[in-house]
Design goal:
With 402 residues, the protein is an alpha+beta fold. The chain folds into three domains: 163 residues, 2-Layer Sandwich (Beta-Lactamase); 69 residues; 140 residues, Histidine kinase-like ATPase, C-terminal domain (Heat Shock Protein 90). Helix content is 45%, strand content 19%. A hairpin with a 2-residue loop joins strand 1 and strand 2. It is elongated. The two termini are 64 Å apart. The N terminus is likely disordered.
């Protein structure tokens, strides 16, 4: 027998369970099953918290029984062990508890401790049979069987409470994420105003200054001003890419997007840059947020046109096909490739494996984050014949077939 336990000293999760009950009908169903398996008319669930015993549900109680299990459950917790008494007179403590609630001292009582995931007792699942005409020898299940079945049901009771608590925690976390997303959007908007607008004005004035005769006629001044404008434009591009990366997230507007429509828009946005190489595309529709799909394609195509081999005209092939895991989108190029040792690193913000080409290392990180938001994956592979193949897998949406 274990040393007596004080419910008020228990660091268990009873408080969380009391604040977040599972559906009462589910708990009553488990109590009903416990009563049937033990061939008893009464079953109940009690929780201990702050030195008090609270009855959560009580199945099949007869009027004179009331909440009789509460003091019996407290005695079980103090004992620290499961109990099965065909006649409570076998144990003076339980007999006294029965007299306290005016049930007499001759009825059957069985209880198993409800233990939270840390193994701390937080309550009991119990059955009682106060009927004077009960006959133990007529019961179908042995005492060992009844104790084992009660222990199994007790674990299911805890599973219900844990599910309820986790569901509540998930709802709270989702609400916090939505709040954070709103704050991030507001912050992004403020940063856009506070950083981009003054920088844009500075660039405009610098370009106007370059047209002044005194500047245009001075080779050194023109060169310094050209470098100033180029640095300012790089800074503006960096700000825009950071803002785009920070703005990823929130709710997705997933729909069937034809790959041809998405790629036509990307090529149009790239303008003269698209003329640097040959871009081809084909395949099935992609179930994705159209704006974010376009961002993935544009970042990957820009990388393919940027990280090239010297003297080799870039070739980019975009394909999409249906697979058991979802729609697999592949952007393959004949560029310089990404060595395996860098492939995990380049998916992080500001990470680059080549510094001899323009960029700040946001593109692949943006794609990786978008794919995570879609519940998909992004892989970097070698392209047969040289180059890189980026494989983005968008999982199938429910009820959507291609």
């Amino acid at each position: 027998m274990r040393s007596p336990a004080d419910p008020s000293d228990s660091p268990g999760k009873a408080g969380a369970y009391l604040n977040c009950w599972p559906p009462e009908e589910d708990l009553l169903a488990l109590c009903e099953l416990a009563a049937q398996l033990c061939e008893a008319p009464i079953a109940g669930i009690d929780l201990f918290h702050e030195g008090k015993t609270q009855t959560i549900v009580l199945y099949g109680a007869i009027p004179e029984a009331g909440d009789a299990d509460a003091p019996l459950s407290a005695a079980t917790l103090a004992d620290g062990e499961d109990v099965y008494l065909e006649d409570v007179r076998e144990d003076p403590r339980y007999a006294a508890a029965c007299r306290d609630v005016r049930l007499g001292d001759g009825h059957m009582y069985a209880a198993v401790l409800l233990r939270d995931p840390q193994g701390i007792p937080v309550g009991t699942l119990s059955v009682t049979d106060p009927r004077p005409d009960r006959r133990a020898e007529r019961r179908k299940n042995t005492v060992v069987q009844r104790r084992r079945m009660l222990a199994t049901l007790a674990r299911q009771v805890i599973d219900l409470f844990e599910l309820s608590v986790r569901t509540e925690e998930l709802a709270r976390i989702n609400a916090e994420l939505e709040r954070s997303q709103r704050h991030l959007a507001a912050f992004t908007s403020q940063v856009s105003h506070d950083l981009k607008n003054p920088l844009t004005a500075t660039l405009a004035w610098a370009e106007l200054m370059a047209e002044l005769p005194a500047v245009a006629g001075d080779a050194d001044a023109s060169d310094y001003l050209r470098r100033c404008v180029a640095s300012g434009r790089r800074m503006l591009t960096m700000i825009e890419e950071f803002l785009e990366y920070a703005g990823i997230g929130g709710s997705l507007d997933r729909r069937q997007v034809p790959i041809g429509d998405a790629m036509s828009a990307v090529v149009q946005d790239l303008g003269e840059m698209a003329d640097r190489g040959t871009i081809r595309w084909s395949g099935v529709d992609v179930n994705a947020d159209p704006v974010q799909l376009r961002a993935v394609l544009q970042n990957l195509v820009v990388n393919a046109l940027t990280y090239t081999q010297a003297g080799v005209r870039p070739e980019v092939e975009v394909t999409s096909r249906d697979t058991p895991l979802g729609i697999q989108l592949v952007v393959a190029d004949n560029g310089s490739g990404i060595p395996p040792r860098f492939r995990d690193q380049v998916l992080l913000p500001l990470a680059r494996h080549r510094t001899d080409v323009p960029g700040i290392g946001i593109g692949l990180a943006t794609c990786h984050r978008i794919m995570a938001d879609h519940g998909g994956t992004l892989e970097i592979r070698d392209r047969r014949g040289g180059g890189t193949a980026i494989v983005a897998t968008f999982p199938h949406a429910r009820g959507v077939t291609v």
